[in-house]
Structure formats: C-alpha cells, structure tokens
Structure prediction request, 608 residues.
Amino acid sequence: MLSQSEHQGVCKLLSLVMSETESHTYREEDYRFLHSMLMEKKVHLLFKIHERLKRFERQSCIPVLEHAARMASDLVEELENQNSRDEVKQLCALFAKPHFKNLLQVHDAVAQKDFEPTLVPVPDDALDEEEDSVKIVSLVKTKEPLGATIKKDKSTGAIVVARIMRGGAADKSGLIHEGDELKEVNGVPLDYKKPKEVLPLLARSQSEIKFKIVPGSLTEGLPSDKNKLFVRALFDYSPLEDPAVPCKDAAMAFTRGDVLQIVNMDDDTWWQARSARNDSSRAGLIPSKQLQERRFMLQRPKPLFKPQRPRPAVSSFEEGPDYAAITGIHIPGLRRSFRLSRKSSRTKNASWFWRWSTEVQGVICPHTYREVIPYLREAKDKQRLVILVGPSGVGVNELRRRLVISDPDRYGVSVPYTTREKKGQEREGVDYHFVSVHKFEEDILNHRLIEYGSYKGHYYGTSLDSVHRVMVTGKMCLMDVHPSKLKFIDTSKFKPYIVFVKPPSIEELRLTRRRVKFLCDKDDPNQVRTFTEENFQDMIDLAETMESQYGHLFDKIIVNGDVATAFKELREDLEKVAEPGVQWVPAEWSRPSLKKTQRSCGHLTGLF
Ligand SMILES: Nc1ncnc2c1ncn2[C@@H]1O[C@H](COP(=O)(O)OP(=O)(O)OP(=O)(O)O)[C@@H](O)[C@H]1O
Prediction:
C-alpha cells in the first residue's frame, strides 16, 4: 500500500497531468474517462512499483557468499551431531527440503555467474581400475553439430574419431581429438558396433552427450593463424555427387573461383577448409590437391586426344583488319591482336589453332587449387591490367571494343609498335608507334616487348611501355594476349586480372553467329564470310584446351553466348575489380623468387 505522503505526491502529479491535458481534450466525456483512469489505485501502485525497482537497481545487490548451499549442508551436518532441540530439528528439516536446496543452488549459480548448463559429475564407478587411460568427456548438446566424424578401425574394430572439424563444437571443447577411441556413448558400449549404429545414439542425446574415450596418440598440426593458407578453387565440388567423401554432412561444397581458407592438411586425401568470407564458420571436408589431381588424371583429358591439326609452314601472324572497316567505328589501338587470325582464308585449311599444337603435346597438369593472398586495393592505386583471352572468333575483340565505347574514360587499349611504313590516315602514337627495325630489335633484346611477331617482313609488337602509358592515365588497360604469354605478365607489377572468354554450346553458337559476317582478308575488304560448322567446333575444342592448360590463371570466365549479356556481366565484374577493397591475387606475386617481368620476357624468343 502507498503511504499517505506517497499517495498525495502521486495525486498531485496526476492532477498536474490532467490540467495540462485539459486544454487538449475537446470532449467532456474524454476528459472524465482520462481522469477516472489516472485516479485508479492500480495506476498509483504501478508508479510505486516502478519507483521501488528503480531504487533497487541503484542499490545493485552483491551476494554475500557464493556457496550458500554448501554452507547450509555443513551447518546441517554440524547441528545433527549436537543434542538437538526442536527448533534445530525444524531448521535441519527445512534445509533438507528439495525446494530450499534448489533455491540455495540457484542463488549460488547467480552469485558465481554460472549461467551455462552444468554437467552431471562423473560417477565414481565410471572407470574400471585397469582402464586408467580412459577419460570421460561430457559435452553440452546445442543446435550446433558436434563437428566430428567417426570410423571403424579396420585392425582393432574399434570406433575411433576420424576427424574433428575446425571451429565445430568438439573442436571448441578441446576434449576430443582425432584418433581417440570411443568406448561408450551415454553409457552404451560401442563394442562391435558399426559407425552407422553409433550415429543414432548421438542423435538421441538430449541436453548432454557423455563419451567414454581412450585417448589416441595423434596430434594436430594446424597452420597457425599467422600462416593462414588461402586457395582459390579451380573446379566445382559437390559432396552430394561424391561417393568417396567420408561424410557428406561434414563436407563442404564450393564452386570454381571460391576462395577457401585451408585449416587442416594432416590428411593426404581430405583437407579441412572454410570459406574465406567467414573465418568463424565451421570447417568442412574438401578433396586434397593430391586426391583431386589423381581424379582429374584418371579422367581422359579430352583435348589431349583430339586429332592434331597440321601446322602451317611459316610461323608468322597476320595482322587483323581494322575494326573501322567492319563496324565503322575506329578506336585507335583496337586492332586485331597479334594472335593468329584464324578467320582468314589462309588459315582456314591449316586450322586456326596451330599455335596450340606444340603446347598440348606435353602432359597437362590438372589444376585444382591456386594459392592466393589478400590484396587491399586502395582508391589511389593504379587500375589493374585487364587481359582478355579466348579462342579465335569467340568475341574477345568485340567485348573489348564495347568496353572502350561504353566508357572511354575508364577503359583504354595499348598502341602497338611496328616497323612498317605509315599508311594514309594513320597517326604516330595513335594507330601505331612507327619505329625502325634497329629500334624494334633493340627492344626485343632488352625484353621490352610482351608479344611480338613478323608479317610480310615487318615487325609488330606490344611493348611494356605502351601498357604502362595507359595504366598511368588511371584507365584500365585492356589487352588481348595469347595465354602462353600470361606467365610473363602475371606479376604484382601489372596485377593482371585475367578474363577467359568462353564459347557457349555449339547449338548456341549456331543460333547467335549464324548471320555474323567478318572480314577474312585484310587486303581485300570485300572478302567477308560467315562462320562454318568447323569453325564452331574448333572454337569449342580450343577453348577446352586453353582452359585445361591455363585455367588456373583465369580470374573470371565469361561465356559469350548472347553478346549483350556477356558484355553486361564483364562490365559489372570489371567495375568490382576497379573498386577499392580486398581482392584475392596469386600468392606468387608476393614471393621474391619470382623473376622480374623483363627478365621473363627474355624467353619470348619464338614467334607465335
Ligand atoms: N556473342 C556474339 N554473338 C554474335 N556475334 C558475335 C558475338 N561475339 C562476337 N561476335 C562477332 O563474331 C565476330 C568475331 O568476333 P571477334 O573478332 O571479337 O572475335 P575474337 O575473339 O576477337 O577473334 P579474332 O582475334 O580472330 O578477331 C565479330 O564479327 C563479332 O562481332
């Protein structure tokens, strides 16, 4: 009940509220209703309770002791030994009551701030005398999976812990380790049981799982936090489609391009990894590099067994026709690259991919994971060099052209060098850098060229300098490089972002390129032709070969079916590359042993 003075105080306050509200209340009955409600005793009591709680909060009670339950039981023990009077007996009876005992236990739990569920103490008879190496482990069961897999030891028949997933409940407990032998689960002996019979025992457990374990001798060898290992997956993986995975639930699906943090490599066949995006997530099993390489090797690498195409006698390239001739839009520097023009009539019979014939003869090493490191791109950093690769005719130049037209301030192309004479409208430094044979050969000797070749007795080439010149303007330099030359520019200096333009299915090629016409001889602008069925098949075959040989270098794969869709996807992707933030780049870029680009270019002795 409220005291007299408190009651008066509340009434005064409420009268004040009423007088203030009077001017805002238009109807008499509303006013009366409000008045009667505020004058209710219950409302006044609520005020009082609120006031008391506030006072209590300010006092912030501290428990006098943390072990009231133990003190009570000690007291009872002491009192029972004395010649007790009735009051003492009553007190002992009170202390013995389960409700009172529980009350004191709750008090102690709050006092000790022990709010986690408590585990039942291990019974004294849990261990047989001869089993002194056995330990009992109790884990509180939550919604989180245990994060461990089990297997039957073939030699002993025992159930052992096969794997502890990093970050899982078992791992966090630090009490269960790989190689531990499970003797019992919740008191049920596991002798002669199969792993699939053990799983329901674990699933049935309610709030706690108790294991009887014989510790194994295996120790974990995890990479330390300082040496985090990240890889980019170079293939798609779905545990659901993998009959060999030890436990589908414990495995992790990923797609090509995902960056994974490897957290355990102890097992030669199954590693543990988690997504690099979320390093607190539970780790999952993934096939190790060795395992996946073996799997790939067992698959017949198709490109290796394709019939070899005859190689043309002369190792030279043709300069492609100017785009102005085809599209009416002239973009300086945006000519056919120094890739062999496979659309020309001359290369038709020889087929357009002789360049690959020497390279595919060697054994292709399957690519599974590539080590990557985070690179924090800042707004002030130069744009990365963007390299587009793809089989001839797939649309590399078309996409490059669209990018430059769409945003000439953002995208640029390098101006090639040549030793031939300037023609008609051509401008120095715009269409070409026209240089002498002596200067060109000097540049070759000084490893200043990324690619070069000769055509009709003249040199043509792309120099490192011309790429630099575009990069210093703050633009993204778009290059079209033969994939075999990628290794020479795959360095931290250029930070290349490599996009593979891939053909769609042959049906889609037929649909989208049926009416496409292109120049097939630069000397004769009237000579246009359309794609043949053979061109489509060659394009697909060559793309497969490229992907299996150089796929590990590709940051992005764009399928060029519908050109507008492919262009949109490419543009959006490059916009992300241009943004500041963390990007994943090859770990080799940070290794000092890497040869400098210029030195590497020294290997470019052959023409292409
Ligand atoms: N998705 C597409 N749909 C229809 N036509 C396309 C598509 N992509 C490119 N093309 C057309 O196909 C022809 C060949 O494309 P492009 O010249 O870009 O190929 P490329 O990969 O650069 O080959 P090359 O180096 O031999 O020129 C061009 O006429 C181009 O406009």
